[in-house]
Amino acid sequence: MNADKLERFIKKQKVSFICSVDESGYPNVKAMLKPGKMIGIREFYFSTNTSSLRVKQFQKNPKASIYFYCKGLIKYTGVMLTGKMEVLTDQNTKDMLWRRGDTIYYKEGVTDSDYCVLKFTAESGRYYCNLKTESFKI
Questions:
Q1: Residues in Cβ contact with 59 at an 8 Å cutoff, skipping those fewer than 6 apart
Q2: Which of 6, 76, 107, 120 is the least crowded, having the fewest Cβ atoms under 10 Å away?
Q3: What's the pTM?
Q4: CB-based contacts of 48, cutoff 8 Å, min separation 6
């Protein structure tokens, strides 16, 4: 699968799913808005609450996956990326991802202590379309 084609596909999706690992070793999935920023198909940035369960899980175990899909009338396409998730709380990163309207989620604005950024770095992936799958390295 062509990386540019994958990037275009991911950018079109409105929802993403992030997966963490809990303290018992089980996967946990959460629907999120699409990434606030992407650098190719290697780096993805999401905003979230510092107090969230996911943040606590990623701080203990950075193994993660993210998933994007599109279901048409007949065709289903999905992309899963696996890698590591970092929790970033530095002000430069928070400023970089902040969007007007984010105060809906973070009342104190860009400096809200309950606002942080999740940075996902992809290592490999799987692409599914038309009953075919393809694994790839990043």
A1: 87
A2: 107
A3: 0.95
A4: 32, 54, 55, 116, 117, 118
Q: Select from 136, 115, 117 the least CA-distant residue to 125.
A: 136
Q: What is the mean pLDDT of each run of 10 residues along the chain (138 residues)?
A: 92 97 97 96 97 98 98 90 98 96 94 97 96 95
Which residue bears the tokens 């940075």? 119
- The residue behind tokens 């992030």 is 18
Report which of 45, 53, 43, 48 is spatially closest to residue 122, judged by C-alpha positions.
43
Let me know the angle formed at the C-alpha of 121 by 117 and 122, rounded to the nearest 5 degrees: 140
pLDDT of residue 74: 84
